[in-house]
Amino acid sequence: MALEITELARTIRARDPARPSWVEAMLCYAGLHAVLWHRLSHGLWRLGLPAAARFSSHLARWLTGIEIHPGAKIGRRLFIDHGMGVVIGETAEIGDDVLIYHGVTLGGLSGQPGKRHPTLENQVTIGAGAQVLGPIRIGRGARVGANAVVVGPVAPGCTVVGIPARPPRGQPCQDPSIGYGLGAAVDEDPVGEQLASLRAELAALRTEVAALRAAEREGECEGV
Known about the structure:
Oligomer: single chain
Number of strands: 14
Distance between the termini: 93 Å
Strand order of the largest sheet: 1-4-7-10-13
Structural class: alpha/beta
């Protein structure tokens, strides 16, 4: 346990731009506490004590604001930054060196038993508010942008953004240079692109309606 606490604190100090001290990393990061508490809950789950495991995870949620089902499998050095509102489902699997921001859901789309939650391979980053849903696989080193909704697999090293999540501007998977889930260029905005497309379509429809009205007026004049 002491080794894992040290490992988690080292990860926080290395990856958080705030560069907290060792004391801060160990005492003031809910993500670290949630992971440690999950080890206890998961151990009880594997021992065949589901009620005790669920009660343990319930206490952890109350203390940290992070809900991790005791059945979820979590690798080493998971960094849950800020963490409030994170939900990780029962059959979720998380690899090593994964970074998850606040408001993320690793959820299911089916109420049927069996594998129904995502699998995150090593070194995946999930942006704030993102929803990763279903028994899909997010490949090694992939990045999911903030508020994206992912319902299909993501290839290793790929960055996806938007609803539904896809690579920026429909380009092949790439590693952006500005934060997570953003392209290198300012105009790489899937939502903006959709709005621009709708505006263009609206302008075309207005032009067509105006032409039809003009033709109708000309017909009326000829009739007179």
